[in-house]
Specification:
The protein is α/β, with parallel strands linked by helices. It has helices at residues 19-28, 57-61, 65-81, 104-117, 126-130, 134-143, 158-171, 189-198, 231-236, 265-277, 296-310, 321-324, 331-345; strands at residues 4-12, 43-44, 93-98, 149-150, 177-184, 219-220, 222-230, 243-252, 285-289, 316-318, 347-348, 364-365, 370-371, 377-384, 388-395. The strands form 3 sheets. The protein has an 11-stranded mixed β-sheet with strand order 4-3-5-7-1-8-15-14-9-10-12, sandwiched between helices. A two-stranded parallel sheet has the order 2-6.
Length: 397
Amino acid sequence: MRDVVVTGRGVVSPVGNSVDTFFDALVEGVSGIVPSDDVAVSEAPASTFDPEGWMTPREIRKTDRYGQFAIAAGLQAWEEAGLADAGVDPERLGVIFGTGIGGITTMESTFQDFFEGGPREVSPHFITMMMSNAAAGLLAIQLGAYGPSWSVSSACATGAHAIGDALRTIQFGDADVVIAGSSEATLCGIPDAAFARMGALSKSGVSRPFDERRDGFVMGEGAGALILEAEEHARARGAKILGRVVGFGASSDAFHMAQPDKTGRGAAAAMRSAIRSAGASVTDVAYINAHGTSTPFNDAIESKAIKEVFNGHAPAVSSTKGQIGHLLGAAGAVEAVATITALERGVLPPTGGLEQPDPECEIDHVLEARSVSGAKLALSNSFGFGGQNASVAFASN
């Protein structure tokens, strides 16, 4: 099977809408979480995002916010990879881009318009704005990608699953280049209310992954995208290689629709599979970008799974969710951007909000930005509602 490299990255996030701005903010401990009068719905919005930098006014009107994020992140990655004039065969160019929920802001506003004003208030673009494969379709149209294209939707594991699908699509020779990632824009009334009713949101309005005071997650929004490319294709065109995607693992808890299996077996299985498919051993792993949601169950169970898998070896662990909140379906892709950039720069971002590590989460926490050199391997973990788990293994170039 072919080796797969990363040649481009793109991000829209609550702390920046370029890779450099985003990663610098993570390293410096900048938080994008905005306090609210109702602390149960504190959120991390991509407040500086402007779609006009990436789309025409007409395109913006016909595209849900989650689709706008996807376009911006995908085009950033495309530009960094230098693919515009690279002569890529369009039938060998794929798009695998997902979302956990899709165009829910469009759904919410359209339902209100419909019930108040009737059918004539419904936009003819409603379906194509809210459907979960809109992001993949929009990017394929923008870039003239005629190769494999589909959407992934597996809750908070979506972004990692999209990258895993892209990895295997290239490995098995079905494409030479794939734009992979995910996007989410759910900062509106119904999702806020639903997650609050579940008891999943932080009542303090603070995201504290692995902290003994953690009490739930804070919702964020954004998108992440990677250009995955067959190594021989990238080298033939003289592309800069940012890092490598070397393994992928997936599993199911088969336990509960919203809670992880308390044994941690699903999370552990995904990590083991990612390491095994990378042809590596646990001692090769220097860093884990954890799912780390700041919920009592997730963080304790993920810590348990890490200790079980690594059995005495202690990779450094951090979570970005203390600074950018939980981006739901976009989390895995945005965190993958953070992971590959950490390897490229040789700097591990800290876990924002973590001040009092929970004894139940006894792992090697990155409390302040940490230099790392010669790292062989890093994992990016994503675990979703429905018990769907994914772990992607990255290596520095």
